[in-house]
Design a protein that fits this description.
The protein is about 60% helix and about 0% strand. It is elongated and about 50 Å long. The longest helix has 19 residues.
Length: about 110
C-alpha cells in the first residue's frame, strides 16, 4: 500500500498521521500473504457456510472461522486489523466475544 492507497482508509490515515509515520507508509508491509485471492476466497466460503441452513456445515465453518482468525490475523499489519474493526464498528470486546473460544482472543478475558 502506498501513500495514495492509504487515502481510501481514513482511520489508518488518521493513525499514521497521529504517529507521524507518513514518511514510512511506502515501506510498511501491510500483509504477508503469498496469494491474497486464495485467502479471500477461503474467508468467503467460510462466511457462506456460517450462514448456511445446514447445521453440520455451520458447525464446521465455526471451527474454520476460529482457525482462520488465528492464522490470518497474525499475517496482517496491526493497522489493517484496526481499520477492519473500525469499518465494522467492532470494539476489542466485540472481537473477544466473537472468538470467546480462543484462549488468546477471549475465553481467558471474559467474565463468567
Amino acid at each position: 500500500m502506498n501513500q495514495q492507497n492509504i487515502e481510501a482508509y481514513p482511520h489508518i490515515q488518521q493513525v499514521v498521521k497521529e504517529l507521524e509515520l507518513e514518511p514510512y507508509v511506502n515501506e510498511m508491509e501491510w500483509h504477508y500473504f503469498k496469494d491474497i485471492d486464495s485467502v479471500l476466497s477461503t474467508i468467503l466460503k467460510t462466511f457462506k457456510d456460517l450462514t448456511s441452513d445446514s447445521i453440520p456445515l455451520r458447525r464446521d465453518a465455526k471451527e474454520r472461522a476460529t482457525h482462520e482468525y488465528l492464522e490470518y490475523s497474525k499475517q496482517l499489519h496491526v493497522f489493517v486489523n484496526e481499520e477492519a474493526r473500525h469499518e465494522l464498528k467492532l470494539s476489542n470486546e466485540d472481537v473477544t466475544r466473537l472468538f470467546r473460544n480462543v484462549e488468546l482472543g477471549g475465553a481467558r478475558y471474559l467474565k463468567k
